[in-house]
Amino acid sequence: MTRLAALLASVAVLLGLCTAVASAEPATTTWLCRPGDTGPCGGGSDKPVDCFYVYPTASLQQSVNADRAPSPELAALAAVQARPFDDVCNVWAPTYRQLTLRNLATLDGPSRDAALALAYTDIRAAWDEYLAIRGDDRPVVLVGHSQGTRMLRNLLRDIESTPARDALVSALLIGATITDDDFSTLAPCSAPGDTGCFVAYSTYNRPRPADARYGGPTAVCTNPAALGSTAPAALRGPIPGITARCDADNVLRVEGGISGSLPTVPDATWGLHLLDITLAQDSLVDLVRTQSAAFLAR
């Protein structure tokens, strides 16, 4: 698959252009990806660092919460977002009873909160199972996007005071509004060699609308191509010739190449949400490689 084809595939997957297949809900964690298994994330098992990946809203099931079936749209999305990390870490990715695409925008606040709380119980259970297998001293990078980032924000709050906190290489909290007040011991990464920190941003290719879903005065924006800087830097991914900078609205503003013609789907308030990870894929993989080396050296 060419880099541009991968970019278009990520749009297609996140727009729900696949067919979902539901099955009976298993009693324990179902792993969409795990080291050594043939699957959408590559199955690598020889890296000294793990990646724990939580996918964004993708389920096409009709219920409020999906079941834990590893349906085709989840596998397709993991192949786009998570598989590139197989070069630098062993990828673990649980399925979870996420709030589905059909109900994301239609539920009232309390119902939405309840659905997300149920989804998180699966992520926490999967994390506990992961620790039981790998141990709480295994170096790990957390990788999430959109609803997956919401899940990881909750997980990080739960593990900040546990031994697993010391094994955190970094957390890539992409495509959600993360603030400095979300954590008590975690700070934004400010240099490539920083560890035990987080990266957070949402991507726009036009000025952020006043009613935008992401960014704003309290948001954290960390440019994966130039941590700690607001200057434009080359963003490495499937589109050559684009730069990225964290602007005054605390969003990652991309310019150059064909970035200006990329669709803001479903509307301008979302920016380039569907492509948050894909546009910066190589920059993110490079960052995880650098952070992992720094963590292991210490």
Q: Which structural category do the helix and sheet elements fall into? A: alpha/beta
Q: Between the first and last Cα atoms, what is the distance in angstroms?
A: 37 Å
Count every helix, treating DSSP H or I runs of 4 or more residues as helices.
Answer: 7
Q: Helix amount, in percent?
A: 25-40%
Outline type = globular
Mean pLDDT: 92
What's the count of strands?
Answer: 10
Q: What's the alpha carbon Rg, rounded to whole Å?
A: 18 Å
Query: What is the element string, with H for helices and E for strands?
Result: HEEHEHHEHEEEEEEHH
Signal peptide: 1-24
Protein name: DUF3089 domain-containing protein
InterPro entries: AB_hydrolase_fold (IPR029058), DUF3089 (IPR021440)
Keywords: Signal
Account of the protein in words:
With 298 residues, the chain is α/β, with parallel strands linked by helices. It has one domain. Helix content is 29%, strand content 15%. It contains seven helices and ten strands. A six-stranded mixed beta sheet has the order 1-3-2-4-5-6, with helices on both faces. It has a four-stranded mixed beta sheet with strand order 7-10-9-8, with no helix packed on it. A hairpin with a 5-residue loop joins strand 9 (242-246) and strand 10 (252-256). Helix 1 (3-14) runs antiparallel to helix 2 (72-81) and helix 4 packs across helix 5. The longest helix is centred in the middle third of the chain and has 26 residues, at 109-134. The protein is globular, with a radius of gyration of 18 Å. The N and C termini lie far apart (37 Å). Residues 16-26 have low confidence and may be disordered.
